[in-house]
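User: What would this chain look like folded?
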Amino acid sequence: MDEQKKSFSEFAVVSLVIGVLSFVTLFGLEKAILAVVFGFLALRRIGKNSQLRGRGLAIAGVVLGAVAVVLLIIIGVYFLSQASLRARNAQPKPPVQSQ
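Assistant: Here's the prediction, encoded as structure tokens.
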């Protein structure tokens, strides 16, 4: 039998690795975005080339990257709101004039 060996898409593997790193360690927003981009590139390549495998890896990388992006945005908004509240409360209030 003449079977052709299917190989994994490099982009799919990279997407998964960066997605795991960005999700587990909150490695950075740019890394999470890269995981999503590489995942979509891998999905496109896998769709065009029947010799490539790794669709599940690419999807996992996209999902992990997207979840990391959402978590980082939520954490950023939370910390910015807390900093704003602390700055507002730290401002001295003008003295009250008694009559």
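The chain has one domain: 7-85. If you want, I can go into more detail on any region.
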